[in-house]
Every structure is written in structure tokens, then in C-alpha cells.
Amino acid sequence: MQRTPRHVQRVYLTLALFNTMAASLIWGINTLFLLDAGLTRTEAFAANAFFTAGQVLFEVPTGVVADTVGRRASYLIGAITLSIATALYLLAWQLDAPFWAWAVTSVLLGLGFTFFSGATDAWLIDALADTGYEGKIESVLAKGEIVEGVAMLTGSIAGGLVAQATNLGVPMSSGQDSCWSRSSSPTCSCATGASRRPGASAPSRRSSTS
């Protein structure tokens, strides 16, 4: 099937929606999750700082992967890395892991997100160029930002409500399942393959937050 600009934009916006939704299920309750795992406030904020450090440290190397190996490889590696890192997050929560384990896992989470960073935008630009799109790329990216904003708000609220009704591990587990799903979804395959280059049950050890 020959791709059209409308089809490319629809795939791009779908990826933006579900990627952001999956991540924001975790963002809203992440600090509470860390505190519930036994970290102090200082350690919880430091763990988040390690996540940011991971993004900064790996931004350029993962960009090289996207440009040399391909957008598809970058996207799939990111999904797999995030799934593994989130599983380690849940394991650390279960085992009352020491701070260093949280620091390492947070850096891995940062690494996972950097594989996504720029890969879908670069794919969008390449794919639209292939279809002969003559409009402004900026307008499509702006639509993506709107979709991401809505998904972030919706996902953060949903994550909080789910944690309140069950426990803090459920949104984390759901985010992990979403990572696996998007790495093998038809939308992901359609998007990344087109490039010229790329409610599981949580551990029940913790009590409900209600």
C-alpha cells in the first residue's frame, strides 16, 4: 500500500499518543513509588536525578544508533530497554533494594527513553518527504505536542487513580506491558519499517494507597 501524507501523520500521532500515555502512567506516582520502596525524600529525588543524567549521557550515542543502524532498531531497542528497566524497578520495589540499585535502574530508564528521542520525529520527516508532502513539518510536530500533552494529563490522572484503587505497583506494571506491546504492535512496525534508516497484575506486597 502506497503511503500518503495523511497516513504518515496518523501513524506519527498514534505513536505520540501511546508512547506518552504509557510513560505518564508512571510519572504521576513515581516519587510516591520510590518513597513506598523505603527511599528517603533525598534518595527519591536523587534517583530521579540519575534518570535525567542517563538521558543527558546517552542522548548523543543513541542518536548515532538511530542514524547508522536505523530508526526501527532505535525504536525497538528503546522499547526493550524500557521494559527491562521497568521490570528491575518493580523488583527493587519488591526487595527493598539499596539506593545504588535504584540509581543504576534510573540510568537504564533514561537510556531507554533516549532511544525514542528524535527517532520518531526523524522518521516523520523522512516519511513525509518520501510521500511528497509540501506542507510545513512544524505544523505536524505541533499536533504531536498537543497529542502528547493530552496523553500526559490523561495518563498521569489514570495512573494515580489506578494506584489509589490497587497499589503503586500496578501503574508501573502497566507501563512495562505497554513497552512490550508497542515494540511488537502493527503501528510500530508500520512506522519504523517505513523509515529509510528507523493490565497485568502487579506485585501485591504493598498495601493500597487509599
Please explain how this structure is put together.
By secondary structure, the chain is an all-alpha fold. It has a single domain, classed as Up-down Bundle (Growth Hormone, Chain: A), CATH 1.20.1250.20. The chain contains 9 helices and no strands. The chain has helices at 5-27, 30-36, 41-68, 71-95, 99-116, 119-131, 137-165, 169-184, 186-193. Helix 3 (41-68) runs antiparallel to helix 4 (71-95) and helix 4 runs antiparallel to helix 6. Mean pLDDT is 81; it is low at 184-190 and 192-210.
Q: Any idea what the shape is?
A: globular
Strand proportion: under 5%
- Radius of gyration from the alpha-carbon trace, in angstroms: 18 Å
Regions with pLDDT < 50 over 5+ consecutive residues? Answer: 184-190, 192-210
Summed up, the domain count is 1
CATH architecture identity: Up-down Bundle
**What profile does the largest beta sheet have?**
none
| Secondary-structure element string | HHHHHHHHH
Q: Kindly report the name of the CATH homologous superfamily.
A: MFS general substrate transporter like domains
* Distance between the first and last residues' Cα: 50 Å
Approximate helicity band: over 70%
Structural class: mainly alpha
The number of distinct helices, counting runs of at least 4 residues, comes to 9
CATH topology: Growth Hormone, Chain: A
CATH class: Mainly Alpha
Mean pLDDT: 81
